[in-house]
Amino acid sequence: MKKEFKLIICGLIFIFALSVTVLLSLNHYMDIQTEKDVREIAKVYLMGVSDQEANRFEAIKTIRFNQLNYMNDSIEKLGPAPTKDQIVHAVNNAAEFQSFTNCSLVSEDGYLEALYGPAINHLGDQDFLISSMQYDREIVTGAWSGNEQLIVFASPLHVPMENGTTSAGILWCKPISSFVKLMNLDNPESLVYFHLIRRDSTYVVRNDDATGDNYFDKINKYLKPEGMTAEEAAKELAMAIDTNSDFMMHTKYTENNGLDYERRTVYATPLDDSNWYLLSIIPYGVLDSMISAMGEARYRGMIVSMAILTAGLLAVVLFYFRMTRKQLHDLEEAKKETEEALEEAKASQEEAIESKDRAEEAMLEAEAATEDAVKAREDAERSKEEAIEAKNRAEDALMEAEAANEDAMKAREEAEKAREEAVEANKAKSDFLSNMSHDIRTPMNAIVGMTAIAEEHIDDKDRVQDCLHKITLSGKHLLGLINDVLDMSKIESGKMTLNMEALSLREAMETMCEIIRPQIRSKGQNFDILISNIISEEVYCDSVRLNQVLLNFLSNAVKFTPEGGFITVSLYQEESPKGDGFVRTHMIVRDTGMGMSEEFRKKLFTAFEREDNLRVHKIQGTGLGMTITKHIVEAMGGTILVDSTPGEGSSFHVTLDLEKVTESDRDMKLPDWSILIVDDNMDLCQTAVLSLEELGTRPEWCLSGEEAIEKVKEKHDKGEDYFAILIDYKMEGMDGLETSKKITEILGDKTPISLISAYDWTEIEKDAREAGVNGFIPKPLFKSTLYHELRKYIPGAETEDNKELHLPQNAVDLTGLKVLLAEDIDVNAEVAKMMLSGNGIEVDRAEDGKVAVEKFESSEPGQYDVILMDLRMPHMNGFEATKAIRALDRKDAQTIPIIAMTADAFAEDANKCYEVGMNAHIAKPIDIHILLRTLSHHCKKDQSQD
Fold it and tell me: If 0-12 CB within 10 Å is exposed, 13-18 middle and 19+ buried, where does residue 812 land?
């Protein structure tokens, strides 16, 4: 036991010695690491402070150079041959206004002529100054006037001098003390102090630490750089100055013949547009004290730790000693108890032998009884097995009966469910037929009734015109009902297809605005469209179906929103989880209309369903629009979220992952213009600012007309007017027109002002022009929209693309256009000929596709400008006729535009037209505006190719 105790004591001593060694080694390592970290921190801090001073020099230089340019411009405006008095007068005014000490002209040979203040009697670096003026550079240098040292801001200027020569430049001087104060070079509280030296190391600005005539002398006399000699350090600094690069060294600054020293770090950096270098020096006096204090603190901590460790080890030894003594005592007690137990066990063994003998006798008696019991148990087990088999057969029969009962119940439930679904389907279709009968008869009644009224008042032009307008509206409504029914039949038969093609979101949103704007205007509603974070304007999508979705939501919003209500469309994008080739596009339509009940919202997308509400009964509709919309969005792989509150309005949120179109090679860039955005919607302002920054301009924004006027005044007073101002038409408080008028009063008509609005420009153009507005930017504010509007202000830039954005639908003159019309129905042919002839277009009709091919084949090249082709005709349909024309061996057979004009209005019908060589597809009944716009596009395109 004593031997084991000695081993434990030796182990504890070893642990104690090892711990002390580790603590001492750790303390030494921490000293080295702390010194290294402090030096690195000092280096980073020194470079940061040096960069800060260099940036401060750059700011001072930029301000002064701007002042010099302004003052030089005022001198040059005196004319090509100003008089001496004119030059002196202009210089004195500028110098007094800017508080300069001296202003002098300098010639190429160094001759100085003072125009203001005392004469300069010495230049700090004449060769650098003269060579810079010869290269038309603006520089900063130094000079002396009497006993005063000056900082000189010099710029090229060529005017006559009193000695008959022409000046190379002009020097504007201030006391260098003001420059030192601005640069904060003499701050006694700073941890860093500075020298400003020339490239030959002579001092420009020296502090109390400067010695000798130049810094090289100080290096050789007082410094001991780390890792090199003083002469090598001076050579490396000279080499850095020659290559215009930065320089850093760690050194000891010695005094009293090297007995006393202080560690320092020196950092040198050039100052642009000058012949100067900035030396930044950080002494380690305070830092060394900190390192020493930290070392002493760690040493004290180590001593305390060693004391605690020693006390802990002693406590462990004492505890182990006491525990060992207690264990020895417990061992003696256990030994005594074991001996007593052995004696008791011996007595019990003798008693057990006697009991064993008695048990053997009892066992023989029990064996005889057991044989009788075994026979009885075998009989009982046979009876039990028979009972179990009977029970199992009964349970199997019961389970079979229960399964049969469940099948019967399930079949009954399915039959009942099928019966209920059939009843509901029959009821829904009956309701639909009833609704359709009512909804179709309503516009038909209007058409028949208004036709009768027009016949009775045939001489009343206004009355007839009103009747025709209402007949047109009823006809469009009837066409919408038919389209909904046909779309629904396509969806139910699974034949609805998508025509995925390149689509411009900007053009799609502008087209949507053009279509819905008249309806919104007629109901006196407020409309706005907001976009943000547009990643890709060009995507692949079925443009017809996308317009159908958005216009369905917007049409419902117009229907169910009262006069004065608000309708808003929002569009934004984000990265798609499908990968870099896709973009997740969000489209939200909000209104402040009557809203929907929660019960109806759950069955909103069920076919033939409309809310049972007195407010809704007067609003026509089939109840199919939302069902069709949901199927279209799901076919595109998207989702629809609906949020609605009765009496407050509804919100429809569509999310689509659309494939990006490869971006155009043309890079949209504008000059570095200063532009102000004014809109009371912060999101729109921030989106416009991001787009304008990407275009290369410097945009600013504000949220009200009052704030915009303050910004314009502030800029105007500084002589830094905005290049252009973009103002929202509708704002709370001061609107866009009033703001434009106030700004025009301040700036005149030199600054372009463009109005931002989702409303039609023709409605507000007159008032806008009177308020000083000379441009219009339609919402939504895509980057390309801003580019095309502002690009027209670039001198010599082409603006045709900008003009085409806002041309009226029938702006192109189609007079004299020659059309071959293939139409077998006389009434349809007559309608088409009347529409086209009314616009100066010559029409030649072909009664079917075969006649159309024959007429084109027998015509002279160029006789027809375009072919309008019906699809369903006898003898030869439109597809066959188009293939035959394209196969003809003549020059214009491949280039003449062929446009389908048919009642086959589905996307797959349009795709078939494109596949056989047609250029466009127009659905009947014909919208004359769409027809004229299509003719204008394809005929203009064809002419440009010719």
Answer: middle
Neighbour-count burial for 74-106, b at 16+ CB within 10 Å, e otherwise: ebeeeeeebeeeebeebbeebbeeeebbbbbbb
Closest CA to 110 of 157, 168, 173, 172: 168
Strand 674-678 and strand 724-728: the pairing is: parallel
Q: How far apart are CA 167 and CA 160, in angstroms?
A: 6
- Where is 559: in which H helix or E strand? helix 543-560
Average pLDDT (836-854) is 91
Quote the tokens at residue 452.
Answer: 């009768």
Cα 140 → chain centroid: 43
Contact 856, 834 (CB under 8 A): no
Q: How far apart are alpha carbons 935 and 872 in whole angstroms? A: 21
pTM for this prediction? 0.40
Residue 784's pLDDT is 79
Q: pLDDT grade, residue 153 (50/70/90)?
A: very high
Question: At 712, which amino acid appears?
Answer: V
- Are 529 and 508 in contact by the 8 Å Cβ rule? The answer is no
Q: Yes or no: say if 828 and 801 are a contact pair by the CB < 8 Å rule.
A: no
Which residue, chain included where needed, has tokens 């019960």?
A: 599
Report which of 449, 516, 506, 437 is spatially closest to residue 478, judged by C-alpha positions. Answer: 437
- The two structure tokens encoding residue 26: 């750790």
Q: What's the pLDDT score for residue 881?
A: 93
Note whether 584 and 575 are within 8 A (CB). Answer: yes
* Torsion sign (Cα): 155, 156, 158, 162: positive
Question: Any bridge partners for residue 172, and if so which?
Answer: 103, 153
Mean pLDDT lowest among 194-208, 543-557, 609-623, 871-885: 609-623
- Write the DSSP assignment of 560-589 as a string of letters: HS-TT-EEEEEEEEEE-TT-TTEEEEEEEE
Tokens linked to 302: 């180590």
Q: Which two tokens stand for residue 601?
A: 């919202």
The pLDDT assigned to 819 comes to: 94
Edge-first strand order for the sheet with 139-145 is 112-116, 102-106, 169-175, 148-156, 139-145, 122-123
Decide if 676 contacts 705 (C-beta within 8 A): no
Helix 849-858 × helix 878-886 angle, to 10°: 20
Specify the amino acid at residue 117: G
Query: In angstroms, rounded to a whole number, what is the distance separating the alpha carbons of residues 334 and 944?
Result: 118
- Tell me if 656 sits within 8 A of 584, measured CB to CB: yes
- Helix (H) / strand (E) containing 450: helix 285-456
**Per-residue confidence (pLDDT) for residue 615, from 0 to 100:** 44
Q: How many residues does the chain have?
A: 946
Q: Locate 198 and state its tokens.
A: 């020339």
- Segment 414-442 mean pLDDT: 62
- Read off the amino acid at residue 142: G
DSSP string for residues in 512-553: HHHHHHHHHHHTT-EEEEEEE--S-SEEEE-HHHHHHHHHHH
Residue 863 — φ and ψ, nearest 5°?
-65, -40
Residues in CB range of 237: below 8 A, 6 or more apart: 201, 215, 216, 219, 247, 249, 268
Using one digit for the tens of pLDDT, what is the confidence trace for 104-136? 999 988 899 998 989 998 898 888 999 999 888
Instruction: Please report how the helices 461-493 and 285-456 are oriented relative to each other, as an axis angle in degrees rounded to 10.
Output: 120
* Distance from C-alpha of 118 to C-alpha of 93, rounded to nearest angstrom: 16
| 592 contacts 659 by C-beta, under 8 angstroms | no
Q: Indicate if the pLDDT at residue 802 is higher than 50.
A: no
Q: Is 320 in contact with 8 (CB distance < 8 Å)? A: yes
By DSSP bridging, strand 169-175 and strand 260-270 are: unpaired
CA distance 361 to 287: 103
Residue 722: φ, ψ to 5°: -65, 145
Output phi, psi for 603, to 5 deg: -115, 25
Q: For residue 730, is pLDDT > 90?
A: no
CA distances for 222 relative to 253, 401, 625, 701, angstroms = 6, 113, 91, 58
